[in-house]
Amino acid sequence: MTVLTLGPEGTFSHELALRLKCDPIVLEPTIHSVFAGVAAGRGDGIVPIENSEAGAVGETMDGLSRYSLSITGEMYMPIHHNLASLVPLEKIRVIYAHPQTHEQCSTWLEELKEVPVIHTSSNAQSAIEAKKTPNAGAILSVSAAGIYHIPVIMEHVENNKENTTRFVKISKNPGPAPRAGKCSLLIDPDTDRAGLLYELLGVFAKRKINLTRIESRPSKRGMGKYVFFLDYAVNGSTDEAFSELESITTVRNLGCYPRIGVPP
Amino acid sequence: MTVLTLGPEGTFSHELALRLKCDPIVLEPTIHSVFAGVAAGRGDGIVPIENSEAGAVGETMDGLSRYSLSITGEMYMPIHHNLASLVPLEKIRVIYAHPQTHEQCSTWLEELKEVPVIHTSSNAQSAIEAKKTPNAGAILSVSAAGIYHIPVIMEHVENNKENTTRFVKISKNPGPAPRAGKCSLLIDPDTDRAGLLYELLGVFAKRKINLTRIESRPSKRGMGKYVFFLDYAVNGSTDEAFSELESITTVRNLGCYPRIGVPP
Description:
Two copies of one chain form a homodimer.
Chain A: E1 3-6, H1 12-19, E2 25-28, H2 31-39, E3 44-51, E4 55-56, H3 58-66, E5 70-78, E6 82-85, E7 94-97, H4 99-104, H5 106-111, E8 117-119, H6 123-132, E9 136-140, H7 142-147, E10 152-154, E11 164-171, E12 182-188, H8 196-205, E13 211-218, E14 226-233, H9 238-248, E15 250-257
Parallel strand pairs in A: 1-2, 1-3, 7-8, 7-9
Antiparallel strand pairs in A: 3-4, 3-11, 5-11, 6-9, 6-10, 12-14, 12-15, 13-14
Keywords (chains A, B): Amino-acid biosynthesis, Aromatic amino acid biosynthesis, Lyase, Phenylalanine biosynthesis
GO biological process, one term (chains A, B): L-phenylalanine biosynthetic process
GO molecular function (chains A, B): prephenate dehydratase activity
């Protein structure tokens, strides 16, 4: 099965697709174009949805809202960042990093007070800049450092060694109902009624359904109006809960799906 | 009063500080350094907290969580993006844009199918690249286009004409209790107890306190563990609600504050 994911070569998305032995892998320039490609029937997609340090990936949340696709699996990948450079640490005069990578490595980078960090548009761009600038370093994954032929001179410079990104698989059609796993749904409250969110959460609470995540996103109908993404663990009464939610407000099922293991 | 905000010259943060007649204005390289400067007593800060298209500003949410500062005001600024270029539209072969700016102008940019968009690390960087590249454009605010001396050749290319960014003023000490306005608080649920969020929202619902926003952020204690930012409208029973929340879980008052008008 063709899998579309975020390129260029060496992104964590690309690394995950390789580890899952997806074949062929099609690298897209943006997360939006992964969604558009899956909607056009070009294959399944793999996209990052949240990181344990940086939070939700807005472009993915908006893609789930904009396209009528289904989540058919979730994957958790440990994220490690490394300092890669053609020169030893003491000779480095500038470090290139993507802003989210910088955020995830801020503690270590702050200790290098005298070395400025320049933000780039991707980890691949960090590698390219570090190669063409004398005495420069880049913050990269091991696989990106390998692809761009820059030696890793310091491993695991991320703030939190448990740094993890959750990815989801997106497909044109829903997958088979999993015995265990999660469901995701998108709630669009339409109205501004006070207490509505409380009422919606009550639907889960009274059935002891474990809500694993709630994420608000702009509805794009003006400041202060939001939609909500909810994830919850599958149990015997999830269908009944969904029907009750539908009687209260506009709700869309984004899919029920299993967890897919990630080989090292 | 000295006000610290995000630079370089021509950011929306800078434009807001100018419109509010803040003097002197100190431009900081990152939102984190605005927080650090306010915590060090160098002045008040002005930071973007959410945009009606792109959602929460993660770096600001994390700053509120990390530093013991107070929100002392909120400001709503309309955001307009424009195409600026030294050449007419039909000669443009590449457009530079910050990823968030791209996201906010995606509809118009997608219509220009044959013109690639290159992501930059800031709107200022877009201006610099557009000036040094032949036949290039940049997506900029009117004030940034003026500062970098690039003519605006097409106005208001944003997806949504109601595009608005909400900013907050942050101070070392809480402001006076406002007669009308909002309060913000940070809830750290510590435990994973099912139904806890439902119980917390009940504290507001039973007092008819209007919850205007709920935003989850990673707790940074591992994937799947979140803290919650809540905004609610001030009413007669907000103190009582806060005491009840404190009896249930760990909660921090981020301040009660008025809305500050933004001169055109």
